[in-house]
């Protein structure tokens, strides 16, 4: 039995989701981080906090700052620096979302109109830059240059991942390996850095820092795989996103890579037109969903995600705090089960 | 006699411009910074160095890293950290140029097609983010968290300034004071931070650090005022920019503020249509240039710039190195005389 299956069996959720329960474990720290987030996104230029609040207060799960706070707690930290880091990683994440939505011309984000639709591309780009800078100001205040390096490196890796993704659009020759490189860079890097920074700032030993990093890195990959599956599950409207965004952008994600590999002649012609050439007509999204479902590509994507969730949980073996360890294991399990 | 006038009288340029001469004073350091710039903009994702090189190697003056290196030299520094800071401030500058050109939909930059035209907006946004992150990675390597804070604060102020500028477009009620706030934020902040960081990293005393900062802050304002004047001088094609970019964007810069304040009834109707409403037809740019020239708005903008150049030079009184001091005074003088 895999760790994930074990977890699913042994831990039955109450009314709260595992993410809510992890929130509850670090509730005071998260409240402090939230106060700091709202304080530091302030500016005499009113458009900045208005636009930032649109995204910051849109009901995001605060997964990355949660990882920072949980890692610090899991290391037995009694200081205050992790709160600044938590606010900083949420700012980095928010900045990348603002820029991503411009790059992808997204219309919806977390069930609301995307900021680029409400205010236009220009303010979205600039407020992203503002929040990114504010993230570094917060990190500077910790005085911990090592931790700053962790987040700075993740930030440049994210940008690399986004450019890689841009270049693999329309390319049906994209391999699963290349796709995983993109996911690792554009999503898992900030998950990993968020947890690593939270652990490192406590002065914890290297193996503990690595454990939290490895957990979050694998969680990030699992999380993105599920996200990419949801874009073809036909239920993503419930997730507050536009239906079929990846398809319209002709992004070659794992569901497409797997479906294309298993496609018959007719399906290959479809993928070559709709994704390879990017020529789409009405009904194409439904047809894509059918092909993806029929070839088992969604099921297979979920299986891959479960593998990374298992890896995430396995990395936690060395964590001394059973409370944090169990809560993080539940989160990993929940992330791969969401949206079914 | 003002300091600037004095300088103009006493220092006659040879074949090299004052900026070239300042370059020559820190030539070895600048070569090291250039090597670092090219090394750190590298990536396995080839589009990143390709796009970055398009701008980095387009013949920019490297004014900001020059300020960093000159300030460190002026403090008698014998270490290596200033080279990393110089590369970092050039990366921050390059990132803001990439994002600005997307925001302004610019077509030309330094006499070449802008990156957003060659590669599109998406890679420009993402490579900007990449370079911005790389700037912080470089600063982390200095281990000097104080200096990191100087650049991080400047970066958020730049973004604030850009948003302020966006909001004052089309607004003929923009005051000169508000315009100076924008210029101070979007341009002078990074000039100031570049010099301040170069001085601070040497461990120089606070008054010396402040002197370099004040010099560069005032130089930055003078520089931007001249830039804004050049956009209506009818000679900006020589500067490698698109003619009348500010006008087409309906940016309310000082030449327009001054010309509008001195406008007769007919000219006011013109400005209200072309800038206030942003409704422009052929021949409008020439008409704007005529109004601006006829009201003396360009001459007045140059006079304001000369004032800030004087302030810049005055700040240098405390600098112990006469070589650096004189070279920086010449640069300030040159910046307000360029493009005549």
Topology:
The structure is a homodimer of 340-residue chains.
Chain A: H1 3-10, H2 18-25, H3 27-40, H4 47-56, H5 63-74, H6 81-103, E1 108-109, E2 112-113, H7 115-118, H8 121-142, H9 145-168, H10 176-200, H11 206-230, H12 245-248, H13 254-261, H14 265-276, H15 284-294, H16 297-315, H17 322-337
Antiparallel strand pairs in A: 1-2
Helix pairs in contact in A: 1-17, 2-17, 3-6, 4-8, 5-6, 5-10, 5-17, 6-8, 6-9, 6-10, 8-9, 9-10, 10-11, 11-16, 11-17, 13-15, 13-16, 16-17
Question: Can you describe this structure?
Answer:
Chain A is mostly helical and 340 residues long. Helices cover 72% and strands 1% of the residues of chain A. Chain A contains 17 helices and two strands. Chain A has helices spanning 3-10, 18-25, 27-40, 47-56, 63-74, 81-103, 115-118, 121-142, 145-168, 176-200, 206-230, 245-248, 254-261, 265-276, 284-294, 297-315, 322-337; strands at residues 108-109, 112-113. Chain A has a two-stranded antiparallel sheet. In chain A, a hairpin with a 2-residue loop joins strand 1 (108-109) and strand 2 (112-113). In chain A, helix 1 crosses helix 17, helix 3 (27-40) packs across helix 6 and helix 10 (176-200) packs across helix 11 (206-230). Chain A is globular and about 60 Å long. Residues 1-13 of chain A have low confidence and may be disordered.
């Amino acid at each position: 039995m895999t760790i994930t299956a074990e977890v699913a069996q042994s831990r039955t959720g109450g009314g709260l989701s595992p993410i809510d329960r992890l929130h509850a474990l670090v509730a005071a720290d998260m409240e402090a981080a939230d106060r700091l987030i709202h304080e530091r996104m302030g500016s005499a230029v009113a458009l900045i906090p208005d636009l930032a609040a649109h995204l910051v207060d849109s009901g995001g799960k605060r997964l990355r700052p949660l990882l920072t706070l949980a890692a610090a707690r899991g290391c037995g930290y009694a200081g205050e620096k992790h709160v600044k880091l938590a606010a900083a990683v949420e700012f980095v994440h928010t900045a990348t979302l603002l820029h991503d939505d411009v790059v992808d011309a997204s219309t919806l984000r977390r069930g609301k109109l995307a900021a680029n639709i409400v205010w236009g591309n220009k303010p979205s780009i600039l407020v992203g830059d503002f929040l990114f800078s504010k993230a570094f100001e917060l990190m500077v205040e910790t005085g911990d240059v090592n931790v700053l390096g962790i987040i700075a490196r993740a930030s440049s890796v994210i940008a690399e991942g986004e450019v890689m993704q841009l270049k693999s659009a329309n390319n049906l020759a994209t391999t699963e390996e290349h796709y995983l490189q993109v996911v690792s860079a554009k999503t898992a890097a900030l998950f990993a850095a968020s947890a690593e920074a939270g652990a490192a700032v406590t002065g914890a030993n290297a193996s503990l820092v690595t454990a939290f990093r490895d957990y979050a890195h694998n969680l990030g990959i699992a999380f993105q795989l599920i996200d990419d599956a949801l874009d073809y599950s036909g239920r993503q409207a419930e997730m507050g996103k536009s239906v079929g965004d990846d398809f319209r952008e002709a992004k070659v994600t794992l569901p497409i890579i797997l479906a294309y590999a298993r496609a018959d002649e007719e399906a290959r012609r479809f993928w070559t037109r709709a994704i390879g050439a990017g020529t789409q007509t009405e009904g194409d999204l439904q047809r894509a969903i059918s092909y993806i479902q029929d070839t088992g590509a969604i099921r297979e994507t979920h299986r891959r995600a479960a593998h990374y969730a298992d890896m995430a949980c396995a990395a936690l073996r060395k964590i001394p705090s059973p409370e944090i360890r169990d809560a993080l294991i539940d989160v990993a399990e929940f992330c791969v089960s969401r949206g079914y």
